[in-house]
Each structure stands twice: as structure tokens, then as C-alpha cells.
Amino acid sequence: MTTITLRFKVNGRPVQLEVPPGRRLLDLLRQDLGLTGTKEGCGEGECGACTVLVDGKPRLACLTAAVQVEGKEVVTIEGLAREGKLHPVQEGFIQTAGVQCGFCTPGLVLAAYALLQENPQPTREEIRGYLAGNLCRCTGYEQVVEAVLWAAERLK
Amino acid sequence: MNPTQIAEGKAVGQGVLRVDAEAKVAGQARYIDDLGFPGMVHAQVVRSDRPHARLRRLDLSPVLAHPKVVAVVTPRDIPGQNCVPIIYRDMPALAEDVVRYVGEPVALVAAETREAAREAALRARIDFEDLPAVFDPLEALNPGAPQAAVREAAEQGNVFNAMRIRKGNVEEGFAQADVIVEGEYRVGYQEHLYLEPQGVIAVPEEGGMTVYGSLQCPFYVQNAVATVLGLPFAKVRIVQTVTGGGFGGKEDVPSHLAAMAALLAWKSKRPVKLVYDRDEDIATTSKRHPGIIRYRTGAKRDGTLTAVEVEFFYNAGAYQTLSSAVLWRGLIHAAGPYRIPHVKVDGYSVATHTVPCGAFRGFGSPQVIFAHESQMDELAKALGMDPLALRAKNALRVGDRTATDQVLEESVGLWECIERVRALARWDELQREVEEFNRRERFRRRGLGVSTVMYGVGMGAKAPLLDKAGAYVKLEVDGSVTVAVGTTEMGQGAQTVLSQIAAEALGVPISSVQIAPVDTSRVPDSGPTVASRTTTVQGQAIVDAAAKLRQRIDQAVRLILECPQFTLEGQTFCASGAARRRATLADVARWMWAHNWDMGATGWVEAAPVDWDPQTGLGKAYFVYSYAAHLAEVEVDLLTGEVKVTRFWAVHDSGKIVNPDTARGQVLGGIAQGIGYALLEELVSQDGRILYPTLTAYHIPTSADVPEVAVEFGEAPYSAGPFGAKGLGEVPLMASHVAVANAISRAVGRRLRQYPALPQRVLELVEGGLG
């Protein structure tokens, strides 16, 4: 099978892999790199559970071909903590009970992180708008919004 | 001597942080698809694409010719019985001679990779002979309709079950009424859409089978795997993995997945992973029953309810699964949380050639609640009464009799919920605001809707054998505590709440408590994790175990301190009187260990007895009820038919709230699911085929679709619940959807009688209503 040599950074670490051109970034992360924190909820770009950051922007790993991240920086949920300490966005989800079953949580956390990079002091409405691509069936989103506000306050 | 109160009030009632949150936010929680085993292969199910057909020939030789295929399984390969036992035994693991719905499994394939399994499964050649099929439950009742139900599982024809309530005499009740309202209501499927699709891994080991999986009810799964493999239960071990949402969807369905994966694992002697795609999950797993619901309700001029008459039909699909229990809960909840002297209810679960429906949060009650709460609003309108006042007037209170003639002996907080939601939402002022808005706006209308519900906690009198729970509580040598229970965490917060109950009952800090992983070989069968029963029933089993352990701890403390009386200061036991001896719980644990004491205690609880007569439909249906009152404000765009829920208020009585933060999360999440049910969620099916089983076509609420919600708890304590707790999980969904529906009806001036209120449906109402 034809493969392509792919070089990129994941969670700050350079990696080099041989990948078939059609391989999804999602499968590469989960299967080849063992980064199972990135979840597959629908495989068609609707639920947002596979959200990762590519050069700081939220991207759906199920709709991204692995080869598209050549030379880029990918951050997954495993890469958000620094020196064993959770990022304030992660801490926010714990503090506000913004986590229930947790399956959408990695994607929501990364989307919220990206939001706060773009807009450090978002309103509730802005948070609801920005996170509308990340489905959650458990929380009804209110405590998720509170998690983001908690993190925004902490990051001031 | 009384056991000392070590640290009362330290854990129960506090917003303790979720014990499972850290692993989940860090991406370290391992869900089923994150796990693998050496030599593991991947399964794909070969399914029927016909709603009803004879299986003439199944040719799997092209499948086996695929280089990566490891094994195939057909019914002939089943060593035990070809049956997924749930309440009945009508559903085969793999269809044998006849298929009864589109998507029914007929064969299984295991291959080295998931892709290969899929490719290979497509090569299966199936020769079907189509048979006449029926999809609509009312048509299925016609004489001469095609037979969908397996005959032994049906009461008659396609009627799986018929159930009724006869209380008083409805003719007399309607004769006493000054106003009678009448209506038919229709609802379609609702899909659970847990974010994590269904999945299991079966591992052959130790002469038996271990199944890991995303599931709610491990002991159901154990039964299914033992049945298909013909193994003793003791050779079948079920281990629950971190579960990404259930909502009832992982009550019975995992039994089927586990049976199929176990069959492949048995034959191939390899670990087998079976994880559904989202599309496969939507198309082939259980959903909320579609229903046709007819109501007639009578009241006197002052609003006093005199009679209710109900007839409802649920489309059960091709196999019984949980439909008899779903129907029963619908029946018991059909008259709502009101004092009504004359009640007549007839409910039918009907077999059709469609995907089997099953458990979904509310379990047969949301459908009838849509109808009874719509009727209450129609009555209020006919009587010219305030809809909240009408509900308050008829609300059940302590000492009243329910629709099944059950006397409510305690813990009835409904009236308080109604009055508190009225105050919370500033009802009078709110109504003026809405009127003003509607006068001002040309193309937008706002409306307010209310709803009140009751919820029978636990399994109820239809399945009392399942309403038990066990717990094993063990003091470790360092003073920490391990708790083993047979109920599961699926996201609702059970691990946290049960940890709090254990901490409170033992008087230890919550950080000392660890809930053990749920593994059927190591935890007591605590019945299923359903029916909003975990806090109440499982919690009480922990209290029972902890009390026994506490007696031993206290006895040890007395021996260590050489003093009959002691107090607890912080986490240190202190001898009373002149002797100033002290000991920490860790010291006590060490001492108990060193003196060869038994450091574990088992607890057991059987829910309070219930009793119900199927002939009359009367009796003590549930041991206790939870209550709620919801209030919704919506805004309808008259030009597009779009509805937005703008504000929402909810007050719940679930007895003592163990954790206000996770309880609030249950309420907020349930309301969002209810909003989805009322407004968005529609699965289009045609001739038994779900046409677009994708998230692209099936919309659940996003963060932009749900409003901020004000939540409060009225806490009418239940004497037999742990620290007074009752159930909560299902109630918010049950109440929320119809508050939204009532708000829409009030906004447009015409009654919404069908879910979901999609824009075109709302526009039809608008055109008819505003003239």
C-alpha cells in the first residue's frame, strides 16, 4: 500500500510516521499514537467529540486526513496539562460539575480552550455560540458554560 | 450504647466534586473503544435489510474467503440457547428462520481489523423471501394484520401486552363534570444519542467468558452471555467500563451486543471487540416508543378533577424487550400527579415489524405526560383558570389516593414545588411581561407553559424481584474505605453520590472512599441501574453495611482507648473523662487488622413492599414518588415557525438531595433532552426502515438551543431512603418537554398535539390559530 511520510508535532513532541493517504487523523491519534483521549462520537463531523487543536485552532479529527497536519502542531486532551497540573479549563469542568459521562468532555475542553485563546473574557452567549459544534447529551450545557467562565476568571 | 456520630453532615448535602471528573477532563478515562487485548479481533454484524422475510439461504463462503476473516457465526454455532433473555425470551441473538425488522442480526463476522470485518460482512449472500409486514401499531391491531409478534410472547395477535386501571366509575365522573376536554396526541421515536456508541469486548478466559462493556445492567448481560454460551453464571464475568451515557439505551441492548461478541469469541478463541458506528447504533438499537394517546378529562367549574379516561398504544417493535415494563410505567403515570376519583386507563404495547423499542429516561411516561399535561392546559383554558392554580388545586398531598388508589403516606412535595416555581419565576409579573411583548411585537409571540409530574421511584410492583441492592464496605488497614456495589456509573454521578453516602454513614472524609469497579464476580447483584433507584435503593444498602461496620469500629475504639465513652474531634477519637487517650481511624483500622478482626461488612436492602392487581389496576404501585413543577417561556417566530426556549424554571422534590451540584446537572441535562423531544428530535422511518440514521439528520439540542435554567429543590424526606433521599434522574426530562409544548400552544393560540414541534408543524398551528 502506498504510504506517505508524515512529520508533525503532537503535544509538543515531534513524530514521524508512515501513513496511508486516506488515514483519518482520528485513527492516527487513537490507534497509531495511543492517544485515546480523543473520542469518536459520530465519525461524520457532527458531534465534536474528536475535536483537537491544529496550530491552535479547533479541528475535527474525524474529518481531517492525517496528511493534512504535515508540519503542524496538534494538541490533544492529553497535551493540555502542564507538568502534571491540569489546565484551568480542565479544572473548571471539575469545579462546576461540567462533566457527566465525560465522552464529549475532551472535545469540549479543547474547544473551550480555543475560545479563551481567541476571546479571553467571553459572555455566556458567546460561549454558547462557540461551543454549539460540540454536542453533549448529559449536562444541558449550563455547567459547561460555568466551567468556561470559571476558567476565564482564573486566567485573568 | 449508641454508635457515635462521627462526622454528621460532612458529606451528604454538599456539592462534593465528582470523583470521576479528573480522569475524564484529562482524557485518561478508558471507554470501551479505548481498550484492547492481545490477539483481539473485530466484529461486524450481518443484518437483515428486510422488515419481514423468511431466511431461505445464508451463504457466508464469500465472507470466509476474505483473507482477514477469522470466524463467522450463524445460529448453528450457538452452543447454548439462541435467545437474548430480557423480560420475555422471544428475541433470538441471531434470527433463525424469519427476520422481523430491518437491521435484525442474522450472522456475525470477526476479522483482524474493523475495516476488514465491515468489508467481509458486505459479502454475505442472503436469500430472503419477503413476507407481508406491518409498521403502524393501529394497523397491526386489525384482524388479518401480518403477525409481527412471536406468538408465545403476545397476549393476542400483535398485542404484546394490554394493561388497565379501573378506579371508581368514569361515566359517573364525567356526569359530575361541568367541562370535559378531549384529544389525541402523537409522538414518534426519540433516540438516546448517548455520545459514546454501544460497545463490548468479549474475552474467552478461565474456561468461561469475560465481557467488558459500556453498560448499565451487568447482571442482565451476565444472564444473556450465560444463555447463549450454555455456561454456568459463575463462568461468565461482566466488567463495566467507563460508560459514556446510557439514559436507558444501555439497559437491555448491551445484552445483545455481549451475546454476539461472546459467540464470536467462543468460536474464534480470541478476544472480540464489537463497537457500533453511530449510524448502526441509531438504526438498530432501542428507542423511546412512538405512541398514539387519547384522553378525556372532566372537571367541575371550580377546577376539581372528576374523571380521566385514557387509551394509549405504544409501538413496541418486533420483540418484547422491555415493552411490558415500559407500558406498565406509562399506565401507572397516565393520570398525572392529581387527585382524581374516577380513572379508566387502557394501555397496549403493540408488535410491528420495526426495530424493538426499549428503555429511555422516563420509561413510557413522557408520552402520556405530554397528553395529560396538555389536557390540564386545555381544561384551564376552558375553565378560564390559571394553569398553575388548576394544578395546585388538584395536586396530590399526603393522605391522598393516587390513580391506582394508593394512599400516599409520606414525602409528597408536589404542592410545594408548584408554589415555589410560581415564586421563582415571578409568575404574575412574568405573565404581564409576556403579554406586553406580544402586544409590542408583530411577528413574534411568546408563551408560558407549565407542567407538573410525579414519578414512581424504583422498579415498582411489576418487577419487585429486581428492587434490591447489596453493598460490601471494607475498612482498609490504613483507614481508607472500599465500597463494592452492583449498580453502575453511566455519567449520572452515582459514584460520587454513593461515595458521599458511604462517607456520611461511616464518618470518614469523602477522599477516603473508593467505589470498586463493577465486576459481576466481585460485587453483589444490586438489580439494574435504572428507574432512578440507585441513590435510594443502592444508597440504603451502603448505609446498612456501614452501620454494621461502625458498630465494630466503635467497639474497637472503646478497647483501644480503654474507655466506654469517647468523642470525635476532627478525625480523631478521644476518650472521655480523665484519660486523654486518642486514636485516628487509621490507628483503629491498624488495630482491627492486627487483632484479626473482620474489617468488611455486607449490607442488603429490599425495597419497601409493593402490590398491584392486574385485574383492576389498583394497588401500591411504587414505594414512594418524586415530584416536579416546570415552567417554560418560548418565543415563536410567526414567519418561520421556529421556536426558541428563552427561559426555564424547575423545582423538584426528590427528597434529601445528596449532592446539589450533580443533582442540578441531572435536572439541566434532563430538561435539555426534553426540549429536544418537544422541538427537534425526529427519526423519519418508512416501511420499517429508519431513513436517515445519522447525526446529520437527527438533531439534539446544542449549547445554542437551551436556555439558562433556574433550578431549586424542595426536599420532602423519604423515611426509608438514605438520609431521606428519593430518585431524581428521570424526572426532569418527564416534566420539561410538555412545559415547552404548553408554552408553544399558548403562544400561538392553538394546541400542539404532535412532537416534535418542527417549524412546519408550528406554522400550520400559526396559520390555523392566528387567522
Write the layout of secondary structure elements.
The complex is a heterodimer of chains A (156) and B (771).
Chain A: E1 4-10, E2 13-19, H1 25-32, E3 51-54, E4 57-60, E5 73-75, H2 88-95, H3 105-118, H4 124-130, H5 142-155
Parallel strand pairs in A: 1-5
Antiparallel strand pairs in A: 1-2, 3-4, 3-5
Helix pairs in contact in A: 2-5
Chain B: H1 21-25, E1 41-47, E2 53-59, H2 61-64, E3 69-73, E4 98-99, E5 105-111, H3 114-121, E6 125-130, H4 137-140, E7 159-167, H5 170-176, E8 179-187, E9 199-205, E10 208-213, H6 218-229, E11 236-240, H7 253-268, E12 272-275, H8 278-284, E13 291-299, E14 305-317, H9 323-333, E15 342-351, H10 365-383, H11 387-394, H12 414-424, H13 427-440, E16 444-456, E17 468-475, E18 481-485, H14 494-506, E19 513-515, H15 534-561, E20 566-569, E21 572-575, E22 582-584, H16 585-594, E23 600-606, E24 611-613, E25 618-620, E26 625-637, E27 643-653, H17 660-679, E28 685-686, E29 689-690, E30 709-713, H18 731-748, H19 759-770
Parallel strand pairs in B: 1-12, 10-11, 14-15, 18-19, 27-30
Antiparallel strand pairs in B: 1-5, 2-4, 2-6, 3-5, 7-15, 8-13, 9-10, 9-12, 13-14, 16-26, 17-18, 17-23, 20-21, 21-22, 24-25, 26-27, 28-29
Helix pairs in contact in B: 6-7, 9-10, 10-18, 14-15, 15-16, 17-18
